[in-house]
Amino acid sequence: MNSYYLINLVIYAAVDAMACLGLSQQFGVAGVTNFGFIVFQAAGGYTAAVLALPADSANGGFQSYIGGWNLPFPVSWIGAAVVGGLIALPFTFLVGRRLRGDFAAVGLLVTAVLLNLLATNYRPLLNGDAGLSLIPQPLQGEYDPQAAGYQWALAAVAVAACAAVYLLVRRITGSPYGRSLRAMRDNDIVADSLGKNLLSLRTAMLVTGGAIAGLSGGILVSYITTWSPAAWGYAETVVLFAAVIIGGAGNHRGAILGAILVPVGFEEVTRYIPTSNNLPPNLIPSLQWVAIGLLIVIFLWVRPQGILPERKRLIRAVPLTMPPAGPAGSGPPASGGVSAGAAQARPGHAGLAPAGLAPAGLAPAGLAPAGLAPAGPVPAGAVPPPEMTAVPAAVRIAGPAHDPAVATGPPDRDVVLAAVDVVREFGGLRAVAGVSLTVRRGTLTGLIGPNGAGKSTLLAMLAGTLTVTAGQIRYQGHDVTGLPAYRRARLGLIRTFQLASEFKKLTVMENLLSAVPGHRGDSLRGALAGPRHWRGDEDAAIARAVALLERFGLEAHANSYAGDLSGGQRRLVEIMRALMAEPQVLLLDEPMAGVHPNLARVIGGELVALAAGGLTVLMVEHELAIMDEFCDPVVAMAEGIVLAQGTMAELRRRSDVVEAYLVG
Ligand SMILES: Nc1ncnc2c1ncn2[C@@H]1O[C@H](COP(=O)(O)OP(=O)(O)OP(=O)(O)O)[C@@H](O)[C@H]1O
């Protein structure tokens, strides 16, 4: 085989593998479907070209372009990566919290098409469809670019760059930050409710993917010495997607394999197809597209996980070696197992007692008395009651220390969560029609009502998953109505969902670890710093998770995919995951649904013990026996309003509640 031909193969394989690694990171790991991926590669290629080219007048002005700085290697490649990353920033508005994933994907595709049209037709800066040529190769002043030695060296540098990209994406994916990315991919609303900033995560993925794509484009342009808009058509993104899907989305080795099989392999195979003058000239390229399309369909149908599926991340249980719980007040609740590992809480969370309990001495001695708050509506815009405005700073368990945006007004000692005349409309339907409600610290408050009463909608508004149409949500004495779910979660306001919401393709252990707040490895910077930076936090979190798993009898499933568990077991995973988030207030939406009655009792007892330690729980539940046994007070809703609030015995004496819900 001719050595130039081999060099060509190696360089194309390296460039395509890099691009596929970037796309696999975005799409396979983080679930960001970037149909505009090729734009970033094209931008990197153009940047490398204009950084290396002399001013456009230097070679007779036959082509026009931006700049022409004639900068030495490797500035052109670095510039390609930087520009590839930077041009991702304007795209972030497409992948924000509010835009559904499929709309964002279409938005990115349309943007790619528009930019390609612009590049093809706008001559002054981009030279139109003629593109750019005579792009200088790296160090071509010092070496002969035609020499085989030079070309092999260029291929070696391209392979080295590809290896560096592989190590980079592997480091990110293998970190707690990578776990958050995969959690977001599996269920972004749930990830949001656990404190993950979706916009920041997706922006980081667009920028790193853009930088990788830009670098790959820069390397390619330096090698082929031309840049043409026709080579970066949006359809090229389909080829890269095919490679990632066939290789195995989310598996970085799969991305490399896919790159070798699809873009490189297809090009090679078609070289051996005999040509004939009788065949239409575009037949073979057209057949290539048909084959790629068919392969995508076949793989998505028969083997959606690809040739090399995403690998399961087994986590070894760390033995519980920490000292027994500390002195009075900082000790575990009666149900000690849940608290294990808390002694290793990070300094930033030092105030958080085991599994989110209130700090020593601040918790009420036992389950709070009924505390019958008036059920009637509070007028809109009402001044908060006086008890919501004065509390010692030490009680701010998860207030301003976590989130500087909520920095005014001291929290209340007793009322930890309040809805003030809250309304939620869906079109013409008033699902919640002016609810006022207070939840007191350390209580296990029940929320009952017939189907469609508005309970889940109210819970979602309290957590920030749904915005209110009118009214106010107050948490720890602060107005949090405008705060998104992830910010509320970081303040300790954690919810679970009515429908199963485990991260299916994360193991049970990973589900639990994904909720840990303030993990040193749960940021891009922390992930890049490497395991040595976050190993301590990880071990402490694993120890806490193991204790919880043992408490709820799921230790044997620690390394099973959560999506493979039974309905009841998945419920338990959600509850444990919520506890791992170190909540101050837990909003549970039918947590016992599908759980065996004996286990439901264990959960109930566990929640009572946690409440005795200062945790506040608001729980929607249809099973009245559970309400009778564990919840006090209980709030009854019907048709979007609160009918009454009191003990279950008191509610049973209310004819309107009995009529609406308790009959039968
Ligand atoms: N996203 C939505 N779009 C339109 N209507 C909705 C939406 N979510 C809830 N609703 C409607 O709002 C009303 C209250 O629903 P919600 O789920 O809050 O009731 P619920 O008390 O939790 O009922 P259940 O006990 O059956 O879960 C229902 O009529 C429901 O159809």
List the helices and strands and how they pair.
Elements (H helix, E strand, L loop, with lengths): L2 H27 L7 H16 L22 H12 L14 H21 L1 H4 L21 H26 L2 H11 L1 H6 L4 H27 L10 H13 L4 H20 L11 H20 L112 E12 L2 E12 L3 E5 L6 H9 L6 E6 L2 E2 L5 H6 L2 E3 L12 H6 L10 H6 L1 H21 L15 H14 L4 E5 L7 H16 L3 E5 L3 H7 L3 E5 L2 E6 L1 H5 L2 H8 L2
Parallel strand pairs: 3-8, 3-9, 6-7, 7-8
Antiparallel strand pairs: 1-2, 1-4, 4-5, 9-10
Subcellular location: Cell membrane
GO cellular component, one term: plasma membrane
InterPro entries: AAA+_ATPase, ABC_AA/LPS_Transport, ABC_transp_permease, ABC_transporter-like_ATP-bd, LivM-like, P-loop_NTPase
Molecular structure report:
This protein is of the alpha/beta class. The chain has a domain at 3-232. The chain contains 22 helices and 10 strands. The protein has helices at 3-29, 37-52, 75-86, 101-121, 123-126, 148-173, 176-186, 188-193, 198-224, 235-247, 252-271, 283-302, 455-463, 485-490, 508-513, 524-529, 531-551, 567-580, 597-612, 624-630, 648-652, 655-662, and strands spanning 415-426, 429-440, 444-448, 470-475, 478-479, 493-495, 585-589, 616-620, 634-638, 641-646. Strands 6-7-8-3-9-10 form a 6-stranded mixed sheet, sandwiched between helices. The chain has a 4-stranded antiparallel sheet with strand order 2-1-4-5, with helices on one face. Strand 4 (470-475) and strand 5 form a beta hairpin. The longest helix has 27 residues, at 3-29. It is elongated and about 95 Å long.
